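I would love for you to help me understand the pair of lines that follows before we discuss the fold together.
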Amino acid sequence: MLDLPPPDTLYDALLARDPAYEGRALVGVTTTGIFCRLTCPARKPRPENCRWFADATQARAAGFRPCLRCRPIGATAEGEALVMRLMADLKDDPGRRWSEADLIGIGLDPSTVRRAFQRHFGQSFLQMARAARLRHGMRTLTKGAAMIEAQLDAGFDSASGFRTAFARLFGHPPHRMRGGGDLRADWIDTPLGGMIAIADDEALHLLEFIDRKALPEGLRKLSGLVGGRVGLGRSAVIDQVEGQLRAYFSGDLSRFSIPVHLHGTEFQRQVWRALQDIPAGQTRSYGQLAEQIAQPSATRAVARANATNRIALVVPCHRVIGADGSMTGYAGGLWRKEKLIEAERRYA
């Protein structure tokens, strides 16, 4: 992390609740002993009562306690109460059919909810709720149940609605995945949300968070690369992925040993292999990654390759940050990137 901006700049950002400083700076208030995000809605302190920190570790070491209102030790999304409330509701009842009327019924403005979720997750809450419902249908199909049973289990009244939603995610209707295939797709639960894993008997081909905006495109591309030979079900590799993810999130595994099949150009594969060489607990800038593959002038191309990675966590594209130490975008959600980097510090 580079040196913090001057105190006057930080104080102006605090008054403006500037989101550009999320993940980059925190303020400690000497009169209360509490430290906050610069976006905290609490009453603003006087400038002489402010101390500035690059991260929560520094603030705590200086004796400050985290604010209970903006939650500065969690991911950015945890600073918004309505986001955390709805995420908890979704976790408790993933099969619920949410609508804007439901949001209004619990006292929330749909447009406010939509903007908050777009800001943190790149998609609306209603889109995330639909993805959670599809999970139930997918698992029912995987067990060999009838299509109508999977449809109802996913909370869809019409078969056409279920088929359309399924096809939007996978790129083809569910019956195309009922038969055998060289690749098998299944759902894996993690502390940061559900993931889709696709593998054959030899290697992992795709691992993505289910709510990633570009997931449908990635699934369609993979289906095309393998001639549409993707079915629902498990392989030994997916079992291995699930086991290693469990150990990783428990703090017992710093490096994955899962064989991967990297679908891309030679340059992209070179970048992705370099990502796998970044140890847990460390980060790199795009420029450093370009130098690592001996192509220092290819920073932008490296950034594009990083963004097109389709094997999350195992190929750790979340470990790449801005040259100034700031959190750059992450297709799986900036809130996840924040949590992953924070959690991996224990491996450093």
Q: What stands out?
A: The mean pLDDT is 81.
